[in-house]
Each structure stands twice: as C-alpha cells, then as structure tokens.
Amino acid sequence: MDRLKGRVAIITGSGQGIGRGIAHRFAKEGARIVVSDWKVHRGERVCAELHEMGAEAISIPADISSREDIEGLVEGAVEAFDGVDILVNNAQTFTPNVPFEEKTDEMWTVSLLTGPLATFWSMRAVHPVMKARGGGRIINFASLNGELGQRLTVDYNASKEAIRTITKTAAREWGHDGILVNAIAPGAASPVYQAWAKRQPEMAAEQERKKPIQRAGDPELDIGGVALFLASDDSRYLTGHTLFVDGGAWLGPSRERVQDDPEQWRRPEHFARIDWNRRDD
Ligand SMILES: NC(=O)c1ccc[n+]([C@@H]2O[C@H](COP(=O)([O-])OP(=O)(O)OC[C@H]3O[C@@H](n4cnc5c(N)ncnc54)[C@H](O)[C@@H]3O)[C@@H](O)[C@H]2O)c1
Asked: Which residue, among 161, 216, 164, 160, has the nearest Cα to 190 in the 3D structure?
C-alpha cells in the first residue's frame, strides 16, 4: 500500500485492458491517475471506477496519433496535478493481421504514428516536467511479436521494436536527469486478446499451453504488478530494459518434440541419455 503515494501517473489507452489494469493497480498504491483514451466513454468509465475506490483521478481524452493531443494531455496533467512523475505509453492502434505483401502504407502509417512516434512525442513532452521534479519513470510498451518477427504483423512488429530502441536511447540520455525508462512486452487477457481468443479458441488454447506458466496473464495482477515495480522506488537502479511479462512465452518453443505436455517430457525415455564422462566410447 502507498508505494506510489501522491505520485502523478499518465496512462495512455487506460480505458480498457492492460492500461486499465495498471490504472487500478497504481490507484491502490496511492497514485493520482490521469486516465486517457481516444474512446471518451471508456476513459470516463475507468475514471469513475477509480473514484469509487477513493482514488484521485481525471480523464483527459487523447488520440495518440496526434502530437497536439499528446501535448495537450501532458499540459492537462500538469495543470491538474502540478506535475507528472510516471508516464505509461500503453496505447497502440492495431492494424489488420494480413500477410507481409498485403500490408498497405495506411497500415504502416497507423502503426508508426501510434507506436514509436506517439511514444517519442509523449516522452519529449514529459521530459522537462520530470527533469524539473528531479526525475521520473517512463514505461513503454513493446511486444514479443516484434522480438520474434511474428507473421502477419510486420508493421506492428517494426513499431514495437522501434519503441524498444527509443527506450534504450532515452535511458542512456536521461539517466542523469533521474528519469528511468523501461519497457514491458506483455501477454495478458485484455479485451482485444479475448476477442481474438474467441475467434480462434484452439489457437489461443495452444498458445497458453506452450508457455511455462500455462495461462493468460491478468492485466492488473500480472502486468500491473510489474508496472508498479517499474514505477516504484524498488526499481531505482534499473533502466533501458524490456521485461517480457508473458508467463515465459518469450523463451520460445522448447527443442524437445514433446515440449508441451509435462507428462510426456518428464518421462525418462525422452531425456538425452548421453553420459559424456564415459571413457570407453
Ligand atoms: N494483450 C496482450 O497480450 C499484448 C501483447 C503484446 C503487446 N501488447 C501491448 O500492450 C498494450 C495494451 O494492449 P491491450 O491488449 O490492453 O489493448 P486493448 O485494445 O485492450 O486496449 C488498448 C486501449 O488503447 C486505446 N487506443 C487505441 N488506439 C488509441 C489511440 N490512437 N489513442 C488513444 N487510445 C487508443 C483503445 O481504445 C483501448 O482502450 C499495447 O501497446 C499492445 O500493443 C499487448
């Protein structure tokens, strides 16, 4: 409790999903929250939930593909709460999943505007505010899709990997200002994930089964907890990292053919039975 007492946090895309989970978690730790979403009703709904919990919160709608909106969001937060301590760049607009050769310039534009450019704009806008306060925390959002070069999402992949190097560059340049910058590559059952899992139940079940922790993540308990760590004093010596908070999915498929079923891969006949110390081979 109170690990973020009085600190001001802007969370983009906090009208649902992971952003909402982080807003709830931060609010329980005493943070003052600026909820932001381009869907006004979503932002207001989450803001009302936070008020019900007794938290201080305001909703400032912003479309992160607009630099003016982002700058207005930061200005609004400073006006309301006299500063910003934590920025969570969570929102991203998704484009249709289609093969590489079917991706259009319009899809690329959406991914690049709402990915690296939005992240850059909001970071640039909060920098003087955080510097004047003696420091701050920035949490950006990456994806395992980018790390792995996942099929059907080339524009999204490129935008998420760009965000990782923006994270590293800012960590290097702003460490002496006390501003620590890290990224989370999450895996969580947000509404967008749930909609996909409903359409592709077998694929979703297989995806969960393949992870070391065989379940979907919870936006508040699993992702919000790590975001809290990155926003709190416990991570004061950590910057420039991407934390893959995805139940171990980032480890990728195991090389044993029977990887997915513990009953199978634990059976002795599947172990590599090579005694490297034998001298009589
Ligand atoms: N859910 C996962 O498993 C997963 C995996 C990898 C990465 N991510 C990343 O995590 C972040 C959150 O994802 P989520 O699953 O909670 O998504 P979500 O769609 O459930 O929630 C995203 C929120 O952002 C808002 N938003 C979208 N475009 C916006 C814009 N232009 N301006 C302002 N708000 C906008 C939406 O209205 C929505 O409320 C994203 O950056 C996403 O790429 C999620």
From this structure: 216
Pocket residues for ligand 1 (CB within 6 Å)? 12-13, 15-19, 37-39, 42, 62-65, 90-93, 114, 141, 143, 186-188, 190-193
DSSP letter assigned to residue 234: G
Residue 51 placed within a domain? yes
> Measuring from atom 20 of ligand 1, which residue has the nearest CA?
17
pTM across the whole model: 0.94
What is the identity of the amino acid at 46?
V
State the CATH number of the domain containing residue 24.
3.40.50.720
Mutation pick for ligand 1 pocket among 71, 190, 213 (CB with most ligand atoms within 8 Å): 190
Tokens of 163: 């965000």
In a domain, 33, yes or no: yes
Instruction: Give 217-228 pLDDT, tens digit per residue.
Output: 999 999 999 999
Let me know if residue 265 belongs to a domain.
no
